[in-house]
C-alpha cells in the first residue's frame, strides 16, 4: 500500500453512485440491495434510491479494525439476515471497497444457493482483492479516505 491516499468527497460520492447505478441497471435489475455494514450502508442506500429499489437490507460484517489493520478473517455480527428470507431474489451486494475481498467472499458464500442470483458492487476495488466484484466505480491501490470515516467520532461536549 502506498502512502498516497485516494480522497472521496461527498460530492464525488454522489457522482460515483449515479455512474455505478447506471452501469448496474444497464446490465442487471436486482430485487434487493444487501448493504454490508458499516462501509456499505451509504452505498446500499444510495444505490437503492438510484435504482428505484425499496427493498434494501443490511448485513453487519467486521473485518478492519484500523488503518491497514484487520482481523484474520471477517466476522458476521448479529443480527444476521436469514438467507431463506432472501430466497428467490436477485441480490445486489453493496460495499465501499473490495480490499482483500474476504468480506465479499464471505457474504457471497453465505447467500450461496438460497437466492436466484448474486451480483456485487463496490466504489473501489484493490488490485490484490481475491474477490472480483461485478460492478466497480474505480480501482486503486491507495488507502481510501471516505468522507464518513475520515474524522474521529464526535464526542459529547460539556
UniProtKB/TrEMBL annotation:
Keywords: Glycosyltransferase, Transferase. Residues 6-150 form the Phosphoribosyltransferase domain. GO terms for molecular function: glycosyltransferase activity. It holds the Pfam family Pribosyltran. The keyword Transmembrane helix does not apply. InterPro entries: PRTase-like, PRTase_dom. Coiled coil: none annotated. This is Putative purine phosphoribosyltransferase. It comes from Corynebacterium efficiens (strain DSM 44549 / YS-314 / AJ 12310 / JCM 11189 / NBRC 100395).
